[in-house]
Specification:
The chain is an all-alpha fold. It has helices at about 5-10, 20-40, 55-80, 85-90, 100-120, 140-165, 175-195, 200-210, 220-240, 250. The protein contains ten helices and no strands. α2 (about 20-40) runs antiparallel to α3, α2 (about 20-40) packs parallel to α5 and α6 runs antiparallel to α7.
């Protein structure tokens, strides 16, 4: 499986004919992002018992392990992007069509919105706070926060491309786990700085439900720029040479089976 070469395929209107498989993929992206926001943002809520406050390690592993788990569950359906930054990176690298990318991002944002709404519904009102909403540390500027979000998302998307490179035959172990751990390690660093979003949809859902919109643009611009930069650097510099045997299984985790992008 390789990149999309034909411009008509890259636009993706022909995928509308495959409404059954496309619909399942959109549902998978919706549910996957909903689960990520519900579990990940839920781990940020404290106050359930006296003196209880979630630790940075707890939150980091909640997000990382959730992504790895969801990827195992729905990766064969939609590729488990569950993140507009990942989708934008794969779009720039021509592994996913324009139409599919737009529909994925809509599904991801809706899933995040529903996940945050469910979290609010099952959480005691007095401890809801901002529902795990990401906020910029007041000691830094929005521009610095943008840089942090760009870099940590760059790490995530670079990992995605590395473990899903269809030309590599040296990748061992679990790709979902590697991707989840890249999220965990970046959270361990960035939680106190920006909240470590790495995912515009993850921030969008709680923002809508909690009404917290401060510096919201940072959590779209930073991750998407980081994802695109990682896609370009990997595709043009780090991608394995063609002489290596192909392993279609890895990139299938980020594209619909039989889609031939």
């Amino acid at each position: 499986m390789g990149k999309i070469k034909d411009m008509r395929d890259y636009i993706g209107t022909s995928e509308l004919k495959e409404y059954g498989s496309l619909g399942k993929a959109l549902l998978a992206e919706f549910l996957g992002t909903m689960i990520l926001v519900f579990v990940g943002c839920g781990s940020c809520i404290g106050g359930w018992t006296d003196g209880y406050a979630p630790s940075k390690v707890q939150i980091a592993f909640a997000f990382g392990v959730t992504v790895a788990t969801v990827a195992q569950a729905i990766g064969h359906i939609s590729g488990c992007h569950i993140n507009p930054a990942v989708t934008c990176g794969l779009l720039v690298a021509r592994y996913v069509s324009v139409l599919r990318s737009l529909l994925y991002i809509i599904a991801q944002c809706l899933g995040a919105l529903v996940g945050a709404a469910i979290l609010k519904g099952v959480t005691a009102e007095k401890i809801q706070g901002n529902l795990g909403m990401t906020t910029v540390n007041p000691q830094i500027s929005a521009g610095q926060a943008l840089g942090v979000e760009l870099i940590i998302t760059f790490v995530l998307v670079l990992t995605v491309f590395g473990v899903c490179d269809e030309r590599r035959n040296d990748v061992k172990g679990s790709a979902p786990l590697a991707i989840g751990l890249s999220i965990t390690t970046c959270h361990l660093m960035a939680i106190p700085i920006t909240g470590s979003s790495m995912n515009p949809a993850r921030t969008f859902g709680p923002a809508v439900i909690s009404g917290v919109w401060a510096d919201h643009w940072v959590y779209w611009a930073g991750p998407i720029l980081g994802g695109i930069l990682a896609a370009i650097i990997y595709s043009y510099i780090f991608r394995a040479p063609k002489t290596q045997p192909y392993d279609d299984v890895q990139m299938d985790n980020y594209n619909k089976r039989g889609n031939n992008p």
